[in-house]
Backbone:
């Protein structure tokens, strides 16, 4: 009962009391933009600040700094947000304003699902656009909460005759200036580029033979397509193939007669090590099937930002020069493991005819 | 061309009979009319190549004598062939055969005829190493021979079968390495002497009658010459002989050897007891007997009449310490018998390495004999004329050769051949020094047959000569500009492996402040691959097996951090394999192990190129590459 008898605080941008500030209401769409273009980073700070305000207003039992981690863990959200909703309703009831309706459970569901989605997206490879959808949903939820808190604040402010300003703070501007172009670039690279790239679907388990090219290969998974030259290479490739995962492709190169297997395979291995110096590499020379053409197989593996990756290069020496298939696969562990064996088998099955 | 001359002359005059030469009297002078009757001169002279215009052979066989009449006419289109072929030779044995030169003449390009005299014919000894019988030779030089000229030789040999040690058999070749215009062979025989006849020439057309055979071949093209072939294996021919089965050859050889074994071996037993003591182990006894027969019995061909194929009595050989292959073999067998080892002779032809069809059984097919025996369920074969090869190995030059075990019911077959005849290990320790040069310590350990080869090479060489030989070999194979210190050990004992150690320093070749980019060819492996290429182009070829393992141990200074090791190599093929793997050992040294295995194999003509390309492919992978980052 103490909480309800406490006088409601007044607020403005500069100060409300000597120890605590309640920020002015801000339009929900501004919160959406901030959340979306900072990849939800701002949501953690936002939540800490809003929970601190709610605690101040409602005198509820909160530990605001712990809320910094709530946006990252959907399981925590299952307990945290209902509590926040309860406190918000308590404030509403105290101020005779409208309480959160049943839609709050829908909001909770969206928050939890979108967070869960981002939580598992590093385990399962999904189309990149889905990740942006999840980000938008999450940002929408944060904006909705902001809208509701605005409602509460405005009601409180109206009762206290406080003027409202709608502005970003300095650090938020910094985040937006960095975040907007970065988000647009990522969106273009991961979502638009694959859509805009001209590609030809390839049916799995079909031997690919190219006119005037003395090689063939067979892709063992669905989702492969032949893409424009230059999509993955500098344009000097003979063939380029995009895989079902984003970081999954094969490129076929022809190295001229002035090269030999040593020059090609050691160069390739050296290049991979330059890109990822902690890669574990093996290089093996074998005869190509029953012929006396020698193949050089280079396989380098490692992890980068916790995701496993694999480079593979199979070069075959022929009297017309050296033909090399070069492949790269990097993904979440689940997807990596799912595709790895077939990816290696495809490269090993590359043959000259 | 000397090889051609030898083969041609051998094939031309080859027969198993020996001759008593009556060279003082050449029966007939060839007249122009006779020659023009035999040869269409103008037609022959159209040929741009020298060739055998005619080769006519006639045999008359009865139970006591065989009379062979041979007439051969050669046309010489150029001076080079005059140089190489202007001489004929006929082998003979004065104890069993009689020869008459019917006519021998040179036809000059002008058509004039020069009839040879006895001054143009020489009689010489022709004993050669490992040859069973001591044949003599008639050398017939054709004076005044010139490009555009002919030689004519007609002779008759009468063989007394009752005096012969060997059975009677002959081989004639319609095809030789020169074109043949006309080849004829005829034989007649009585009911008491019906010869066994074997024909494996596609050029020959024969008519068989009850007591005769007539064969002929016209315009036979020259056989294609190659570098590593045996005429008996590759050239179709016709054989005639008196024996009807290989059992006859075995029985004859058994009889010959039995006559040499000691009837009362007390002397042999006493000798062995003195040398080996009581109840020596079989392995020790074999080792001693083998070394004694091969090293202590000095090789000397004692194939005088009566001992062309019959060994001398073993006790005499033991006493004189002199013998040839059959004497040494008989002594080994006799001594081995005293310690419970049942050894047996094995006849060998070092001129054949195929068991072809339609062979006529004959002792004359063989020119060598070795001893074989079973020990611990495995057959061991020893050539007692070889003073360097240990008894557990079979001498390299008899492996895969045409052979006949003198055991009941044996048939000719190729003598065993080791899967890897030539094998050795190389361990090379390389220390890259602080100046960017390297110090190399290399040890080569050779397997027994290779060791035997080195022992043979070292025989008779002075210390300085041997040092020069080893240094040259190292410089040829590893580095021509190097100055290695080389030591060799294991040359004296038959059972010891030859070890060659070399220590070499190489001047700085790598900037120690730059990244490491090192490459070195595994030189000894490369050398073996180079030596394994088939030499033939047109005929099948047998390749003796080679197995070499190489281990490089690199000590790399800390100012380089190895980033790229040599690629692993797993080149597996039906012709052989090359494998390489590298590791960093616990002491931080880079260890690179490579093995080359080229098993012995008979390569078909159609696969000669494939085999060479296979070796080419292996050569590409012999380079060791090491990359490293310089310490920053």
Residues:
């Amino acid at each position: 009962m103490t909480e309800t008898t406490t006088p409601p605080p007044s607020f403005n941008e500069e100060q409300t009391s000597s120890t605590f500030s309640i920020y002015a209401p801000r339009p929900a769409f501004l919160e959406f933009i901030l959340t979306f273009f900072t990849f939800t980073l701002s949501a953690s700070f936002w939540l800490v600040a809003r929970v601190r305000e709610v605690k101040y207003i409602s005198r509820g039992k909160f530990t605001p700094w712990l809320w910094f981690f709530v946006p990252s863990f959907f399981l925590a959200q299952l307990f945290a947000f209902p509590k926040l909703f309860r406190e918000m309703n308590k404030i509403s009831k105290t101020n005779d304003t409208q309480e959160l309706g049943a839609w709050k459970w829908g909001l909770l569901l969206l928050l939890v699902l979108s967070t869960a989605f981002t939580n598992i997206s590093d385990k399962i490879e999904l189309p990149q656009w889905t990740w942006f959808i999840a980000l938008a949903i999450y940002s929408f939820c944060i904006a909705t909460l902001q809208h509701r808190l605005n409602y509460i604040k405005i009601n409180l402010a109206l009762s206290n005759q406080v003027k409202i300003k709608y502005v970003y703070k300095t650090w938020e501007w910094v985040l937006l200036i960095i975040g907007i172009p970065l988000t647009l670039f990522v969106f273009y690279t991961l979502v638009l580029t694959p859509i805009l790239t001209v590609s030809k679907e390839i049916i799995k388990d079909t031997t690919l033979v190219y006119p005037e090219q003395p090689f063939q290969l067979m892709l063992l998974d669905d989702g492969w397509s032949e893409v424009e030259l230059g999509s993955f290479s500098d344009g000097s490739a003979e063939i380029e193939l995009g895989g079902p995962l984003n970081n999954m492709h094969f490129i076929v190169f022809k190295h001229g007669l002035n090269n030999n297997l040593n020059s090609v395979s050691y160069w390739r291995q050296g290049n991979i090590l330059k890109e990822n110096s902690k890669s574990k590499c093996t290089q093996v020379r074998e005869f190509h099937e029953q012929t006396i053409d020698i193949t050089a197989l280079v396989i380098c593996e490692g992890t980068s930002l916790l995701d496993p990756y694999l480079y593979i290069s199979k070069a075959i020496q022929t009297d017309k020069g050296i033909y090399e298939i070069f492949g790269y696969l990097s993904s979440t562990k689940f997807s990596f493991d799912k595709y790895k064996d077939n990816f290696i088998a495809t490269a090993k099955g590359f043959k000259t005819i | 061309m000397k090889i051609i001359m030898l083969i041609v002359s051998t094939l031309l005059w080859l027969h198993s009979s020996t001759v008593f030469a009556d060279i003082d009297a050449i029966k007939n002078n060839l007249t122009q009319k006779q020659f023009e009757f035999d040869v269409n001169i103008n037609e022959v002279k159209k040929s741009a190549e020298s060739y055998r215009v005619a080769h006519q052979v006639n045999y008359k066989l009865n139970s006591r004598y065989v009379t062979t009449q041979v007439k051969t006419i050669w046309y010489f289109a150029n001076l080079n062939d005059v140089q190489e072929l202007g001489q004929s030779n006929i082998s003979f044995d004065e104890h069993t055969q009689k020869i008459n030169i019917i006519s021998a003449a040179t036809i000059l390009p002008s058509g004039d005829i020069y009839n040879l005299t006895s001054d143009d014919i020489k009689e010489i000894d022709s004993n050669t190493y490992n040859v069973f019988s001591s044949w003599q030779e008639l050398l017939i030089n054709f004076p005044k021979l010139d490009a555009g000229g002919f030689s004519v030789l007609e002779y008759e040999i009468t063989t007394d079968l009752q005096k012969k040690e060997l059975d009677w058999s002959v081989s004639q070749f319609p095809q030789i390495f020169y074109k043949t215009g006309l080849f004829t062979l005829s034989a007649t025989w009585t009911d008491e002497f019906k010869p066994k006849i074997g024909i494996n020439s596609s050029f020959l057309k024969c008519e068989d009658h009850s007591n005769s055979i007539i064969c002929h071949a016209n315009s036979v093209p020259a056989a294609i010459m190659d570098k590593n072939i045996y005429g008996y294996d590759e050239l179709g021919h016709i054989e005639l002989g008196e024996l009807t089965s290989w059992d006859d050859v075995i029985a004859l050889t058994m009889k010959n050897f039995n006559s040499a074994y000691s009837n009362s071996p007390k002397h042999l037993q006493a000798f062995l007891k003195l040398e080996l003591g009581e109840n020596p182990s079989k392995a020790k006894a074999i080792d001693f007997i083998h070394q004694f027969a091969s090293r202590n019995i000095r090789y000397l061909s004692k194939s005088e009449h009566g001992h062309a194929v019959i060994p001398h009595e073993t006790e005499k050989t033991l006493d004189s310490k002199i013998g040839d292959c059959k004497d040494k073999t008989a002594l080994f067998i006799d001594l081995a018998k005293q310690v419970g080892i049942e050894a047996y002779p094995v006849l060998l032809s070092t001129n054949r390495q195929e068991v072809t069809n339609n062979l006529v059984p004959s002792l004359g097919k063989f020119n060598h004999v070795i001893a074989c025996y079973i020990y611990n369920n495995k057959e061991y074969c020893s050539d007692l004329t070889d003073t360097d090869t240990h008894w557990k190995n079979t001498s390299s030059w008899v492996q895969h050769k045409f052979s006949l075990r003198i055991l009941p019911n044996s048939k000719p077959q190729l003598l065993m051949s080791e899967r890897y005849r030539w094998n050795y290990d190389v361990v090379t320790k390389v220390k890259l020094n602080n100046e960017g040069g390297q110090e190399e310590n290399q040890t080569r350990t050779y397997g027994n047959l290779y060791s035997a080869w080195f022992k043979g090479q070292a025989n008779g060489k002075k210390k300085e000569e041997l040092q020069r030989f080893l240094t040259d070999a190292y410089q040829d194979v590893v580095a021509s500009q190097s100055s290695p210190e080389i030591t060799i050990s294991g040359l004296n004992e038959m059972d010891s492996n030859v070890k060659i150690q070399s220590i070499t320093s190489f001047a700085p070749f790598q900037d120690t402040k730059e990244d490491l980019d090192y490459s070195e060819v595994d030189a000894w492996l490369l050398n073996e691959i180079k030596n394994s290429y088939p030499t033939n182009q047109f005929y099948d070829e047998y390749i003796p097996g080679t197995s070499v393992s190489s281990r490089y141990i690199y000590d790399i200074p800390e100012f380089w951090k190895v980033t790229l090791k040599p690629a692993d190599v797993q080149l597996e093929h039906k012709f052989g394999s090359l494998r390489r793997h590298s590791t960093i050992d616990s002491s931080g040294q880079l260890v690179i192990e490579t093995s080359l295995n080229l098993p012995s194999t008979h390569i078909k003509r159609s696969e000669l190129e494939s085999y060479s390309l296979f070796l080419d492919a292996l050569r590409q992978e012999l380079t060791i590459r090491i990359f490293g980052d310089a310490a920053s």
Notes: Residues 304 and 353 of chain A are 36 Å apart (CA to CA). The two ends of chain A are 86 Å apart (CA to CA).
